[in-house]
Amino acid sequence: MENQDQQNNIMPRIGDQAPDFEALTTTGKIKFSDFAKDKWIVMFSHPADFTPVCTTEMSGFALRKNEFDTLNTELIGLSIDSIHSHLAWVNNVKEKTGVYFGFPIIADIDMKVSKLYGMLQPNEHETAAVRAVFFIDPSKKIRLIMYYPLNVGRNMDEILRVLEALQTSDKHGVAMPLNWKKGDKVIVPPPKNLEEMNNRLNDDSCERTDFYLCKKEL
Ligand code: BEZ
Fold it and tell me: For residue 160, is it within any domain?
């Protein structure tokens, strides 16, 4: 058996309700089910405070927080470090670079939340969370999950792109093609029966490759 812990670890999946928890954060105690009601949440883990890649990533979130605000989205970070470590790191980065991590960062010293969300992946590291990102909608449903290893930082443009793609898909009932970004054409849902298929074949309101692949401007 490869790794008993991993085999027993039930990871949250896309479409699941985000597991509830209580935790201590840099902005105070939170109960997740009461956190950021009516908003989207991007919850992300980093392996450790005071490490180089993590510092660049957290700074990336902080520097683009206004774009998350515009998308009605709250940020919440996490690592398996103490609150004292988090506070010292936040202060250190502010002093050295002027960048302030003003969003809550969970001090998951007992690994409770990391285990609940499958952020602790023991074959990558026994005691440090991988670089996970959970996109959670206002009904607290998990809509997209990213996992990165310890040695590769995430891409902030991609994080914002998929957040906007999810929200645009919900708002307009459309899907997003390869490399979609705001302003690009979107995919009209394909027909579900013969009648819809035949109608689509005569529908010139969208850019039609064939009945199952049609794009339109929003
Ligand atoms: C980093 O953020 O630089 C890092 C953290 C843990 C392991 C390796 C790299």
Answer: no
